[in-house]
Amino acid sequence: MLLKAGANVESADKCGWRPLHYAAFHGHETMVDWLLAANADVCASTLEWADNDTKPSRLYTGNKWKGHPIHLAAMAGNQNIMQKLLDHGADVFATTGIDTEKWYFPGHGPTALHIALDTGLFYGRIGKPLNKTRLWIAQMLVDRGADVNTVADHLQLDDVMCFEKFEGLWDKIRAGISEKGAKVSTVPIMHLQQP
């Protein structure tokens, strides 16, 4: 109703969050459809984190965080919204501005792929880390050319087991594990499976 009345789809709150950010984060798929139909900017960046209740560990309201709707869809684990954002030109290379040299939690970014593969503490997470939906999101991002460098550096052996039905994805992201990364970087999934 507000969109039909001419509401500004790019109106932002004090943290720089626009309606598409909130809709992507909270899983409001119908609202995402309406906003995309009204030409909402899929590459709009926030200024700060805005939600103290549902969040990755150590990310607080007011922290500098330049997330796009694609980051928030990855964080929420919403595969359908992620697909819609990608289909409307979301940037798989967009970063949240997190300095990974000083402060690194994959749940903060810097990319949507880092966020999709996050295994850390997340307050209010829907689903488990590295569940099928999150791995499908990671697959979508990799298929669109997302950079795999360092995205799996934090993964441990137990995490790798989650890739059992996603061997192709694992093969692609393990190629980007740095020397600082986990010791599982060279382990193919087939060697981890029970006989």
From TrEMBL:
It comes from the Eukaryota. Keywords: ANK repeat, Repeat. PROSITE patterns: ANK_REP_REGION, ANK_REPEAT. One of its GO terms (cellular component) is nucleus. The keyword ATP-binding does not apply. GO terms for biological process: positive regulation of transcription by RNA polymerase II. GO terms for molecular function: transcription cis-regulatory region binding. ANK repeats lie at residues 15-47, 69-97, 108-153. This is Uncharacterized protein.
